[in-house]
């Protein structure tokens, strides 16, 4: 039996050393996006956005997640409704029509 060469494994980075990442274009083909998805996810905050294309036409956009809190929905309509008349009084029979 012949000896087979083992693939060269990259050496782990030493503590405190940041590995160099390759810079990806902001417009990237779908096949390249599939290959580099983890790198794109890690760098989308710095890159701003990635436009994924298929045959040169944009099909998707990868953007950083916006963590702004949503506005509170309670009380957002305050001051927009005007109550006219007595809302607790029963309706007269002519208002009920066939339901009375």
Shape: elongated
Number of strands: 3
Task: Give start-end ranges of low-pLDDT stretches.
Answer: none
Helix content: 10-25%
In order across it, which strands form the biggest sheet?
1-2-3
% residues in beta strands: 5-15%
Q: What is the CA-based Rg, rounded? A: 31 Å
User: From the coordinates shown, what is the CATH architecture of the domain at 22-64?
Assistant: 3-Layer(aba) Sandwich
Q: Kindly report the oligomeric state of this protein.
A: single chain
CATH topology-level name of the domain at 22-64 = YefM-like fold
Number of H- or I-type helical stretches:
3
CATH class of the domain at 22-64: Alpha Beta
How far apart are the termini? 97 Å
Quick tags:
elongated, single chain, 100 residues, 3 helices, alpha+beta, YefM-like fold
Description of the molecule:
The radius of gyration is 31 Å and the shape is elongated. It has helices at residues 30-35, 37-47, 93-96; strands at 27-29, 50-54, 57-62. It is an alpha+beta fold. The N and C termini lie far apart (97 Å). The mean pLDDT is 80. 2% of the residues are buried. The chain contains three helices and three strands.
């Amino acid at each position: 039996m012949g000896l087979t060469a083992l693939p060269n494994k990259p050496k782990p980075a030493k503590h405190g050393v940041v590995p160099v990442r390759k810079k990806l274009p902001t417009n990237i083909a779908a096949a390249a996006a599939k290959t580099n998805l983890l790198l794109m996810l890690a760098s989308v905050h710095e890159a701003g956005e990635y436009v994924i294309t298929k045959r040169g036409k944009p099909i998707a956009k990868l953007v950083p997640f916006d963590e702004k809190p949503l506005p509170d929905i309670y009380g957002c309509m305050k001051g927009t409704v005007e109550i006219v008349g007595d809302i607790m009084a029963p309706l007269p029979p002519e208002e009920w029509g066939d339901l009375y």
